[in-house]
Amino acid sequence: MRWLRARLGQGDGERGSALVEFVFIALVVFVPLVYIIAGFSAVQRGVFASQAAAREAGRAMGTAPDPVSGHERALRAAQLAVEDQSVEVTDMRLAYAPAGAGCDGAGSYSPALAPGEEFSVCVTVTVRIPLLPEFIDANTATGQFVVERDRYVDG
Questions:
Q1: Distance between CA 87 and CA 75 in Å, rounded?
Q2: Helix-then-strand count for the chain, H and E
Q3: In this predicted model, what pLDDT tens digit does every residue of 97-150 receive, in sequence order?
Q4: What is the spatial distance between Cα 94 and Cα 125, in angstroms, rounded to a whole number?
Q5: What does pTM read for this prediction?
């Protein structure tokens, strides 16, 4: 066996170097890989939270008897949907937009809940990437759900 090591150029001075190389490669490759996976899962969690919250808030608002109680129901439904995805409720914003408009200018519109009315519910969630400072909150996910009130409702 000694003659094979000598022939391959491995002396007794390199004993244990494979373990050191493996640990170094593991730190260089696996730690960033785990961080990237954690970052992607945080972003995906934010996207799921915003879409589910918009859908649930839209359903709550669309079936409400009046705009005031509808907004309260929609806000609570959105909060529950966001909490379900393990996202902080303080990072959520609920707004409404008129029919055909996107969520970019949402916020100044308030639905009247008239029969046949169509509007969008927009929920914006701030996505927090792990191990980044809290002041870096430029990453947001917005979910939109279009609500069409039934034309034949009491009211």
A1: 15
A2: 4, 3
A3: 998 888 887 888 999 999 999 999 999 998 888 888 777 656 889 999 999 998
A4: 9
A5: 0.79
